[in-house]
Every structure is written in structure tokens, then in C-alpha cells.
Design brief:
The protein has 2 domains: 185 residues, Rossmann fold (3-Layer(aba) Sandwich), CATH 3.40.50; 100 residues, no CATH class. The two termini are 35 Å apart. It is built from 13 helices and 9 strands. Strand 3 and strand 4 form a beta hairpin. The radius of gyration is 22 Å and the shape is elongated. The chain has a 5-stranded parallel β-sheet. Strands 3-4 form a two-stranded antiparallel ribbon.
Length: 294
């Protein structure tokens, strides 16, 4: 990433940020550890491209988006798409203020005006009305025409970073016209070595042998998902770290894994498979004192 340092600093200097927007710059809890993907994303942003991050759950799509906003010191607006998101949710709508009708800007308008990074989460769940808004801001026009208000020109520092999973309920394929407006990165699963590093960064007190076992347990889940023995949502990295937080508070390790990972699987057969993996890797009655070097 060092070779991009000067260009990133030039980008920041070229597009200074208003002071009252600095609290919108994220402070990521997790660092994205895939150097190749990170460099590809940085190059795309420097080149003025919008990004579409495609991958299964726990591939770090939102983590990467947060890291990019942090690296470029840009305010971030996060838009989670669902059936209720329409044009007014994205652009804004009329509202009353002190008895007057005023236009209240939506996240797409705000990110466009202030040079922010707009995270379009689960973009393939967007309905047609929302898609129509995205077409105009993502292509060469980079304008938002708000009827009865004014034309909003998209700030040259603004980037749109979309995420999507394949095969989730309520999702659909994106049309070619929308896909052509993005540079597309296919997000790989985290490697065992990077997972070990991530766990060490956040829980340096844990024993090396436990970190190895936990990382290999997660790899077991990935292997089972790749073999279509369990659902692709089962390798839940967020669930692993949530479980470690519960262990930190005194809960037994296996019970924490059940609460934060296994109980999210509602197919009994799949849940039993994961339970067997858990039992094969870890003994019973593991508490914080058993896992740390303290």
C-alpha cells in the first residue's frame, strides 16, 4: 500500500473536508487484511471509479468499505437496501421546519454534495425505483435532479461503494447497465493466517494454541460451506468475535459459540454438523482463565 501513499495524500489535500463532517469519518473496529484486494480498491477510488464488492458473508465487504473511508478521510453514509427503500429515502423529501416546507436531504444527496463515500449495502435488494436514482449518480452525468428543488452535482470526491451477496432471499441479479458503472471486486474468504492475525490484534491475551484451534474451526466451517454441507451464512466471522466478547464477560466458550453462531442456523441437521465440528476441536468447560496467558 505504500506506493499509493502520495496519491492518497494528494486526494485528501485536493478535497478538504468541512470540520463538522469529521465525526462521519469511520474509525474501523477491524482492519482489512487482504493487501491485494485493498490495493485494488484504493487504485479504483483514486481513478474515480465506484466499487461493487461481491462475496459471501464474512468476506469483509463492509469492513473494507469502512477502511477505505478511513484511509481517504471521507465522511461515510451507509444505506441498507430493503423493500421500503425508495427514491425519497435516498434523495430526500419535503418536511416541515418551523412551519415552512423545506427539503430534507437523504444520504445519497448528502454524500454527493459533501464528497462522502456512500455505502450501498446489499444493492441487489434494491427495488426499481431506488435503482433509477442510482443510475443517474453512478454514470458520467453524476447529477441528481430533484423535482421542485434543484440540480445536485455530485462532488468529484464522492464515491459509491456497493456490496452484494449472491443467493440471499429477496436478492436479484443486477442489470448490465448498472454493473457497467462499477469496478467489481470479488471478495475472497479470509485466510487462516489473516484470521489468526486478526484474533491476535483484538485479543492478544489468548493462548497461541487456542487461536490456532479457533482459526481452524472457522476453516472447517468454510470447507463445509464450500462442499454445500452447510449454508454459506454459517461461517460467520462476526459471530466468532461476538462469542469471544461473551467469553470475556465470563461465559463458557462453547455456550458462547452456540449463542453467537450455531443458534443462527435454523436447520437442525446443519446445526448438528457445526456442533460436531465444535466438539471435535474443543473440550468442555472452557472459560476465560483457560484461554489466556494471564
Amino acid at each position: 500500500m505504500d506506493r499509493f501513499y502520495k496519491n492518497i495524500e494528494d486526494f485528501k489535500n485536493k478535497y478538504p473536508l468541512e470540520k463538522d463532517l469529521e465525526d462521519r469519518i469511520p474509525n474501523p473496529k477491524f482492519l482489512y487484511l487482504g493487501n491485494t484486494v485493498l490495493e485494488e480498491a484504493i487504485a479504483a477510488i483514486l481513478a474515480g471509479k465506484n466499487l461493487l464488492l461481491v462475496g459471501d458473508k464474512s468476506t469483509g465487504k463492509n469492513v473494507l468499505a469502512e477502511n477505505l473511508s478511513y484511509i481517504f478521510s471521507r465522511p461515510m453514509w451507509n444505506i441498507s437496501f430493503h423493500v421500503s427503500v425508495d427514491a425519497s429515502s435516498l434523495i430526500g423529501d419535503d418536511t416541515l421546519k418551523s412551519g415552512d416546507v423545506v427539503f430534507r436531504e437523504g444520504p445519497i444527496s448528502l454524500a454527493s454534495r459533501y464528497g462522502g463515500f456512500a455505502i450501498l449495502d446489499e444493492i441487489n435488494m434494491a427495488k426499481n425505483e431506488a435503482m433509477a436514482v442510482l443510475h443517474s449518480v453512478l454514470d458520467y452525468r453524476r447529477k441528481i435532479d430533484v423535482p421542485g428543488y434543484k440540480l445536485i452535482n455530485v462532488n468529484p470526491a464522492t464515491r459509491f461503494i456497493a456490496t452484494m451477496n449472491y443467493g440471499y432471499e429477496g436478492t436479484r441479479d443486477l442489470n448490465e447497465a448498472l454493473l457497467s458503472r462499477f469496478a467489481i471486486i470479488k471478495m475472497p474468504r479470509i485466510s487462516v493466517d489473516n484470521l489468526k492475525r486478526l484474533i491476535k490484534d483484538h485479543h492478544p491475551e489468548l493462548k497461541e494454541v487456542f487461536i490456532n484451534d479457533l482459526s481452524n474451526f472457522f476453516k472447517d466451517l468454510i470447507d463445509k460451506a464450500d462442499a454445500h454441507e452447510i449454508t454459506n451464512t454459517a461461517p460467520d466471522l462476526r459471530g466468532i468475535f461476538d462469542a469471544l466478547d461473551l467469553v470475556e464477560e465470563g461465559l463458557e466458550f462453547k455456550e458462547a459459540i452456540r449463542l453467537c453462531l450455531i443458534n443462527k442456523i435454523f436447520d437442525d441437521y446443519e446445526a448438528d454438523l457445526i456442533e460436531d465440528l465444535l466438539k471435535s476441536r474443543f473440550s468442555d468447560n472452557i472459560y476465560k482463565k483457560d484461554l489466556t496467558n494471564e
